[in-house]
Amino acid sequence: MLLSLFESLTGTKPAPSKLEEEVSLQREFEIEVNGGNVPVRLLFESRFNNRVTVNKNGILIRIADRQSKEEQRKSVDTLLKWAKEKLGDKPQLLESLPQRQYRNGEILKVGDYEFVISIFYHDLAKSTAKIFKNNIVLSVSKGLNKEVEANAASYLVAKCLCKFFLPIITERIHELNTRYFRKEIKSVKMKHATSFWGHCSRNGNLVISVRLLFAPAKVVDYVLIHELAHLIHHDHSPRFWKVVEQVMPDYQNAEKHLKEHSSKYYL
Asked: The pTM is what?
């Protein structure tokens, strides 16, 4: 079924117009998951790898357009299968997070830090942001509707927080690794992820969601320990959970906290 669907989506098409050439090729359809229909978008982009994202907007699959049709077909099949299994385990990934409305002068508390939101408007097309002392300064384009402005503000605040907290999180990860795991870490990154709290690749690349910073310190440590444990067992087998438990015997309390408070931690 997936193969025939892929063929219909990527079959021969008329030559694109100049305008169409400037945007990524996109295909949209729906699949059934847990008795409901979930929207899927395929983006064929000039990239080196493939990736899938599951969030409130559905399933987004980014495919490298430099691959052959056969390679693309296999990638779509594999990523769709992974996404369906992920949603089977965590249907809450499709739940919408609230949209934060930032106000000029408000205090944003992140862990032990407090930032004052300062919003300025300008006539330029691009909105920007930076952290200056304890201020997150947003320079926003005039004339944006409320939804677009709110999305831009969330993206910019998240970008600032990622840059500010990356050295802090990186230091803590290496501290925990040295104390309990002693495994090689290739890289540490932070991003505004809504479908996961942390991720560890088989190559030792760790990604931490900036949303995690709103959680208590012990919960943050749990996610870092969880991802570091994947350097030993890259699965969720009993052996994996045994490693986590050895480092943090009460880790289940942190798991429960994240499940109960996920909708409160957003940008």
From this structure: 0.68
Q: Fill in the amino acid letter for 58.
A: G
pLDDT digits (tens, 9 = 90+) for 159-170: 999 999 999 999
Are residues 138 and 255 both part of a single domain? yes
Reference 234, options 210, 259, 199, 265; nearest CA is: 199
Clarify whether residues 89 and 120 are in a common domain.
no
Same domain for 205 and 251?
A: yes
What residues form DSSP beta bridges with 189? Answer: 207
CB atoms within 10 A of CB 213: 21
212 and 146 in a common domain? yes
Same domain, residue pair 228 and 130: yes
Beta strands in 123-204 (DSSP E): 128-132, 135-141, 187-191, 198-200
Tell the burial category of 129 from Cβ atoms under 10 Å away from its Cβ (0-12, 13-18, 19+): buried
Least Cα distance to 176 among 202, 203, 198 occurs for 198
Please tell me whether residues 124 and 230 are part of one structural domain. yes
User: Does residue 13 have a pLDDT over 70?
Assistant: no
The residues, any chain, with a CB within 8 Å of residue 23's CB and separated by 6 or more, are: none
3-class secondary-structure state, position 45: strand
Q: Are strands 128-132 and 187-191 parallel, antiparallel or unpaired?
A: unpaired
Does the structure show a pLDDT above 80 at 120?
Answer: yes
pLDDT digits (tens, 9 = 90+) for 33-43: 777 778 888 88
Four-residue CA torsion sign, 234, 239, 244, 246: negative
